[in-house]
Amino acid sequence: MDHTEHTESRVYELGYHLVPTLSEEQVPAASAAVSGMIERISKGIIAEESPVFIDLAYTIVKTVEHKNKRFDEAYFGWIKFEGEPAGIAELEEGLKKDDNVLRYLITKTISENTFVAKKFASTKVKEIAEEVAVPEAVVAEESEVVPEVKGEDALDKVIEEMVA
Q: CB of 101 within 8 A of CB of 95?
């Protein structure tokens, strides 16, 4: 990927997986190594989230010591930073060489907070809808007793009374 065609500073976000073979004590050091790579090429870190242990949606294969290893879990973290496009190539090289990094993705983004609120589960939406106040006029209309009608003529008569 050619990162040298633009020279102005941009905002990027790095999402990365660390190998699950790291112990809980080793994760902060591995995350700090990734942050250190970013600090060398960036103007500053805007936001970040420490890696958390997750189940992966699919198996990722990584070659470690000339052997393919399969991973179904990883530590996921992200860092949003501002930097020059030319520094991204250096960052990618460093991430490729780091044995603790299972996979990464660098995207261009904006510096504002871009979190999206979680959607309500359908049962939660129903509970909220029940709590919403209903106007009294609507309640009065619904509380009217509709007579039971047998036959088409009787039904027509009841409809005419209701419309009139």
A: yes
Q: What is the CATH number of the domain that holds 23?
A: 3.30.70.60
Long-range pairs for 63-66: beta carbons < 8 A, 24 or more residues apart: 64/99
- CA-based end-to-end distance of the chain: 74
Residues in the chain: 164
Task: Based on the fold, state whether residues 95 and 141 are members of the same structural domain.
Answer: no
Two structure tokens written together for 34: 């990734």
Token pair, residue 35, equals 């942050």
Which pLDDT tens digit goes with each residue over 103-131? 999 999 987 765 555 554 555 555 555 55
Q: Is 102 helix (H, G, I), strand (E, B) or coil?
A: strand
Confidence of residue 27 (pLDDT cuts 50, 70, 90): very high
Torsions phi, psi for 128 (to 5 deg)? -65, -40
For residue 57, count other CB atoms closer than 10 A to its CB.
7
What distance in Å separates the CA atoms of residue 141 and residue 139, rounded to the nearest whole number? 5
How many domains does one find in the chain? Answer: 2
